[in-house]
Amino acid sequence: MTRRHDSRVAGGQWPVASSQRFFLTGHWPLPTGHYRSCNGITLLEVAIMLAVLAILASAVTPAVMQRIVDARVDATRSEVKNLYEAMVGRESEPGTFGFIGDMGRLPSTLDELVRPGNLPTFTSQTVRNVGIGWNGPYINAGVSQDDYLMDGFGRPYAPIQNGQVRSAGADSVFNTPDDLVYPPNPPLVNGRVAVVVKHQNEDGSVLVDPLGYVVNLYYSNNGRQAVLTAATPPFVFENVPRGLHAVVVISAGTIVAQDTIASLGGGQTRLVELWVLGPTSLLPSGGADGGAGQGSGAGHGSGSDQGRGAGQGRGSGRGQGSGRQ
User: Fold this and answer.
1) What's the mean pLDDT when you consider all of the chain?
2) Can you tell me the distance from the alpha carbon of 213 to that of 148, in angstroms, rounded to the nearest whole number?
3) Is the peptide bond before 234 cis (omega within 30 degrees of 0)?
4) Residue 212 and residue 65: Cα distance in Å, rounded?
5) CATH code, 205
6) Rounded to an integer, what distance in angstroms lies between the CA atom of residue 117 and that of residue 11?
7) Preceding omega of 137 cis (within 30 degrees of 0)
8) pTM of the predicted model as reported, rounded to 2 decimal places
9) What would the pLDDT profile of 293-320 be if each residue is shown by its tens digit?
10) Residue 104 sits in a domain of what CATH number?
11) Is residue 291 included in any domain, yes or no?
């Protein structure tokens, strides 16, 4: 009797082919002897991943941190320059003099650039309508009310000393090599003004700095108009603050010439020529014989020499109050 082979396994279930199993479960069966979970990774793989991440972090982190520090340094350099230009005027805008042009001095604190406190308010009711008094704010305060008081690292600037703005830099310690300071050296914000009075007679002859004239220079003294007077030639005014100033020539109580001039500070000498037209008989007492020179020939001109004096120019000219750079 022939026995029929029964391919059924115990339990009465027929074996399922691999393709059928994939269709039913969505997974191909692993080869015999390979039993691996599809729901996780081994401990060895975790260790390798952590090691790779540690290597990448050690290589990338210093470069990223340095770029952040460099960006903050660049921002601070820009800020300290802007603060200084708010004090003395912008180099890119000739004729602007900032806080010192209005007040006649540097600010004692950065706060004075934004808040006037008890400082005199701006007015043009002055000689030749030269504006004097606090006319700020001189700088944008920033996002928050006191943002301008902080450097790029979020730390306060040092108190102003000698017109310099100082940040402690990356190490947050003042007076160390990484400090960010602008300008690098204490600025010279005052200068010298030399006024030459020239009296031209009807015959064309010129008297330079004849006796009897008085020259007044008006400037801002802490926001209030003040005056410097030179009663005898040479008419030289020292320590004139950076800014616009009125210059007036007086004879016998009468203004005979005037002009508005700019002192640029930096220890420079600004030479100004003011002309008076009229016959010799109109000169102040003793002026006809006390002139510093006569004639219309060429002579020596102005000299800056880092603010160390000024020559007295000679030559022909016309008009009153023709100040020259």
Assistant:
1) 79
2) 49
3) yes
4) 71
5) 2.60.40.1120
6) 99
7) yes
8) 0.70
9) 333 322 333 333 333 333 333 333 333 3
10) 3.30.700
11) yes
Residues 199 and 123 in one domain: no
Residue 302: count of CB within 10 angstroms of its CB: 19
Domain containing 82: what range? Answer: 63-182
Alpha-carbon distance of 146 to 148, in angstroms, equals 5
Q: Does residue 315 lie in a domain region?
A: no
User: What is the C-alpha to C-alpha distance for residues 193 and 200, in angstroms, rounded to an integer?
Assistant: 22
Distance of CA 222 to the CA centre of its chain: 21
Q: Cα dist. 265→25, 30, 161, 257 in Å?
A: 90, 89, 18, 24
Cβ count near 268 (within 10 Å)? 20
Q: What six digits make up the tokens of 68?
A: 């952040």
In this structure, the dihedral spanned by the alpha carbons of residues 110, 115, 119 and 123, taken in order and rounded to 10 degrees, is 120
What per-residue confidence (pLDDT) applies to 125? 96
Our CA angle for 215, 217, 219, nearest 5°, is: 170
Reading the block at residue 282, the tokens are 């109109």
User: What whole-number distance in Å separates Cα of residue 2 and Cα of residue 64?
Assistant: 83
Question: Same structural domain for residues 169 and 94?
Answer: yes
